[in-house]
Amino acid sequence: MTAPWPVWAPYAAAASAAVNAAAQAAWALTGTAVPATPHHDHPPAAQFLLALLSLLAAAACLAGTERPTRVRAALVIAPIPIFVPGMIGFPLHFVTLLSGGGVESATGLAHVLLSTATAAFLALCAVAYHRRSRGRCPRCGRAHGHPGGGPLAHPAPSTASRRTRTAVYALMCGVLPWAGVKTVWTLGGDALGVTAEEWRAANAGASGPARALAAAGIDVTVLAAMVAILLLLALMYPWGMAFPRRIPVLAGRRVPRQLPLVPARLTAASLALYGTAITAYAPLAALGALPAPEPSGGFDRAGLIWMTAFGGLAFAGLGHGLIIASRSYSARTRPACAAGPANEVTPRPRSFVPSGGTTTGGGSP
Fold first, then answer.
1. Taking the chain (365 residues) in consecutive chunks of 10 residues, what is each chunk's mean pLDDT?
2. Secondary structure element (H or E) that encloses residue 41, with its range
3. Taking a C-beta distance cutoff of 8 angstroms, is the pair 2, 29 a contact?
4. Pairing mode, if any, of strands 152-153 and 35-37?
5. Is the N end or the C end of the chain the one with fewer CB atoms within 10 Å?
6. pTM for the whole thing?
7. 54-74 in b/e burial notation, b at 16+ Cβ within 10 A?
8. Which residues lie closer than 8 Å to 144 by C-beta, 6 or more apart?
């Protein structure tokens, strides 16, 4: 049986931070270009700073393995916002690789993956330390009299609250203008002053799978957005907690808790940050407060600003929707240590015993 996640999370966080520190220092010393934006690279000073912060984060993780305190938990939490901006390119790289577009920048992809891994493992470590510093079980987060480590009781499948569903559906609507315009182009129509021919010419360098989808009237980025919407629905409804009975073999079995949570958490922050930034940029550019984008790809300046605004609404809507839906799913699926004595403080939730047997394991945050 594998060790519970609170045992290995601090060491995984320290290791990922140390690797990140080594990579950042090596890139800075050798003058290797690491893209920060499509037209700018990370300056060496910023890379050295990231390396130093990574080493301090690794030290904070290891310092709390024996006796975690709230101060040590705070020291692990503090550097996480530094690494989150490095995650912004994660969905873009994922969609590009999925569509067969290849790797545009190996160092850029490596930076994104290292930032994502470091932030994710630091968050796990911080959760474990915070719970232990409050006298709670680090695995399930509840207060009980037994040491834990035994079977886990999983809640029964449930639906997200009406408030959560209303907020997520409203945020989903942000995809409609962006997806609608792209669908018009792929179907041969004109939109925002750009003809379908101009759109195809601007995307002539797309990969074979992307061109094949476009020929069928499907834009690859719109398809990726539909996958994100499917993930949002899974996070809100019972079929995201137990496989529907129409699915062979898996029918009625419990969905592994991290199966929807990991992709949601990995993409939510980056989509939300990127989408919010360009949503704010578009009206400022239209008013002349910020430099407007240069016309390209058949767009005039006004059309490009509108398309930027549509993209911002889509990405921000999906990102913030994933944050809200994943928080709800995490709370609704949070397991509890099932085997406890009579002095257990927090009552156990209703156990969910799927067809095919009971569930046990190391748990998850």
1. 80 96 95 83 92 94 85 89 85 68 79 92 92 86 70 89 97 95 89 87 65 64 90 96 87 90 90 92 92 83 92 95 96 81 39 39 53
2. strand 40-41
3. no
4. unpaired
5. N
6. 0.81
7. bbebbebbbbbbeebeeebbe
8. 137, 337, 340, 344, 345, 346
